[in-house]
Amino acid sequence: MLADLDRITARENADLNEKSCASRLESIRERARDLAQNVFGPRAASIDKAEIYPWENCFALRDAGFMGMTIPKAYGGQGLGYREAVVLVEEVSKACGVTGRIAVEANMGAVGAIMAYGSEKQKKIAAELVLEGDKPAICITEPESGSAATDMTTRADKVGDGYILNGKKHWITGGGVSRLHLIFAQVFENDEPQGIAGFIVVRGEPGAEGLSIGKREPTMGLRGIPETEVYLRDLHVPADMLLQPPSGIRKGFGDLMTAYNGQRVGAAAVALGLAVGAYDQAEAFIQQREQFGRPICEFQGLQWMLADMAVQISAARALINEAVNGTGFPDKMKAAQAKLFTSEMAVKVTNDALQMHGAAGYSRNNPVERMVRDARMFTIGGGTAQVLRNVIASDLLGRKFPQTREGYMAYPASKSPVDTLREKVEK
């Protein structure tokens, strides 16, 4: 009897928690939608045209409690999870992809890694900056090190009470506007390689003079957020600004990349928002546009296009929700699946929405044109569609596949589970 009562109580508590979570998510969605429609949407075209960073939008996110909402309460945040964050990001991105990206990096990525692995000092520094409206910058990519992140050549040499960093980063989102930087580098001590680690640097602070911003890339889309070079010239970073994951420096890069799974899901949420925004525009347009004496929504070809778009959007949202349906960082496999499917879906749906508008969609006066350009980035940044397929296949097969030519040639033919089982039986 007592066991039955315990089970009933547990089930009731779970139901109450689920209802509370659903209510919280709906509240975030409504508030984010209001901001998107009344504040971010009207500004989106001018941000894109002028290629200016939307500080006003950052402050609007901050004032609404949407900057650093995943930061623990102990450091001034709300202690919310990725489920709440992706709802925010989707709603914001329907109206403005640039602001959606800012919302991602203010709640995931670098700030997530620091809150998970950082010291008390590091967490307080990051929390203060983000809660004030700063969008952190993750500095991984280099001119000759994109998908092959471990080929980075930026060095961090242990010298005295800290590290001296030298190198060049490229395609750094927020270069020149972000203050908080999480910089990845190859660590050396006595000229011996130690592994790849992350270093926390605050641009503009005394001692950070060795960090400078290079040229800005003229991007196809998401033009309101700069993508720049970042130069590190004898940049001194105190030892207490080394982000130390549980596995230490030698194996800690894997921990840091686990934190990056959150960034991938966030990118998927931006792509989802762009697709939904384009879908909404197309659905409204085909109902009011008339050709041949009737609304074009009465033509079956466009009906099928709209139906396919809706199905793809629903599938993408389900993958994203599955990836964030838990505590801690999203699972690598689920994050890769969500990012891959949603990014490719967004490219197709935004282009289909433009097609449904006809010539009107090709005009820069139409928000769908901007959404097409913005969506294109997400099959590239944060893990290309091709690399993510490698990640997924590797996980499915339970095997690691070296990507370098030398590594592949030296790698012994892996045994399948069937071969392994056969060997055990024969023994």
Question: How would you characterize the overall build of this protein?
Answer:
It is an enzyme of class 3 (hydrolase). Keywords: FAD, Flavoprotein, Hydrolase, Oxidoreductase. This protein has helices at 2-50, 55-63, 82-95, 97-105, 110-117, 120-132, 248-288, 300-323, 332-357, 367-375, 385-397, 405-410, 417-426; strands at 137-139, 155-159, 162-173, 180-189, 192-202, 211-216, 227-238, 242-243, 290-291, 294-295. By secondary structure, it is of the alpha+beta class. It has three domains: 2-132, Acyl-CoA dehydrogenase/oxidase, N-terminal domain (Butyryl-Coa Dehydrogenase, subunit A, domain 1, Orthogonal Bundle), CATH 1.10.540.10; 137-251, Beta Barrel (Butyryl-CoA Dehydrogenase, subunit A, domain 2), CATH 2.40.110; 260-397, Butyryl-CoA Dehydrogenase, subunit A, domain 3. The N and C termini lie far apart (51 Å). The mean pLDDT is 92.
Provide a brief overview of the structure.
The chain has 427 residues and is α+β, with helices and mostly antiparallel strands.
